[in-house]
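Box 3.1 A note on notation
Throughout this textbook, protein chains are presented in two layers. The first layer is the amino acid sequence; the second is a token string describing backbone geometry. Keep the layers aligned when reading.
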Amino acid sequence: MQIADTIQGVEVCGLAHFSLAETLDCGQAFRFSFQDGRWQGIAQGRQARLIQKEDGFVLEGCSLAEFERQWRRYFDLDRDYEAIRQSFLADPALAVCARYAPGIRILRQDAWETLVSFIVSQNNHVPRIKGIIERICTLFGEPVVGGYAFPTAQKLANLDEPALEPLRAGWRSGYILDAARRVADGRLPLDQIACLPLKEAREALMTVRGVGPKVAECVLLYGMGRMEAFPLDVWMKRAMALLFPGRTPEDFGPYAGIAQQYIFHYSRMQKIG
């Protein structure tokens, strides 16, 4: 990997099979969209404008210092995804999935935003998820360049369900408030939970109203960098039954979460089951 500070911004090249489209539009993040030839969104309170290159990307208007401080970790650029992907190719069924979208990366998102995002995602579809999250930010987040930051847990904890009615989130509003209050008052210390053994971390997250195993696994994988986490939603359960009968998440090893993302994207795009 090579990183260069250019007039346009920071250019990252020398990445094997890196795809912004596969990474930002595969169901793990909800604040990016493709407009005018670039991917645009807000993450961790900062705007990102990204242009795909043959073997990497350009982060427009970004300084090298900002890139090192925020975006290098966000895109998990120091992990050797190609070596991990190659290790999956020995498994014939997994190889089909890993070859379908080799450019996927697991984003290291903010744990609090990830928790709320996947509470919102329950029994929902992507356009509506994006709409609810955008309204959360517009109504309750702080203004930043390009839009609004995701609101803090403290900000939401001081609200009540009527205040969340403009979100049009339905029954999920109560779950969002419960999560906010638990994070704000210290009952749900996300930084500490991220370091717990996986079973204990999962159980801690599931103390939030409406958070079951699937949402907890999504928070662990996408918001806490726990690569052994393995979210199972309807698509994944169908894919596992059809492509990997008798297999369990533990069978995929320490990078089960990366395997899961290949399987999920493949099964969703190919409408497996």
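The longest strand covers residues 46-53. The chain has 13 helices and eight strands.
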